[in-house]
Amino acid sequence: MRGGAYSAAKGGLTALTTHIACQYGSRGIRCNAVAPGVIETPMTETRLQDERFRRLNIEMTPHQRLGTVDDVASAVAFLCSPEGSFINGQTIVVDGGWSSTRYLSDFALTSRWTVR
């Protein structure tokens, strides 16, 4: 299974985030995670050189762009700020809406039905 270990690790981190939040919340300790989408970084540079991959990710993101490190940093800064003080045990997805729409987009790309 391609990517099975990676997927399992991500699920484990989500569960650990929730567990730590519950275990230490009464002490005023918060634990949250950030799950970035396709972000332009040196790590993704090679993959993003594939024009089809780049285009597909941009088209399937409601913001019609790839994410930046500043997008992720802003989410982390918010979680660490007083404004984020009542957020605990959550995984914040920073992907421009890609994960919310990708299944619908996959369906729309391969279906004879029109989504309105």
TrEMBL record:
<dbReference type="InterPro" id="IPR002347">
    <property type="entry name" value="SDR_fam"/>
</dbReference>
<protein>
    <submittedName>
        <fullName>Enoyl-(Acyl carrier ) reductase family protein</fullName>
    </submittedName>
</protein>
<dbReference type="Pfam" id="PF13561">
    <property type="entry name" value="adh_short_C2"/>
</dbReference>
<dbReference type="InterPro" id="IPR036291">
    <property type="entry name" value="NAD(P)-bd_dom_sf"/>
</dbReference>
<keyword id="KW-0560">Oxidoreductase</keyword>
<dbReference type="GO" id="GO:0016491">
    <property type="term" value="F:oxidoreductase activity"/>
</dbReference>
<comment type="similarity">
    <text>Belongs to the short-chain dehydrogenases/reductases (SDR) family.</text>
</comment>
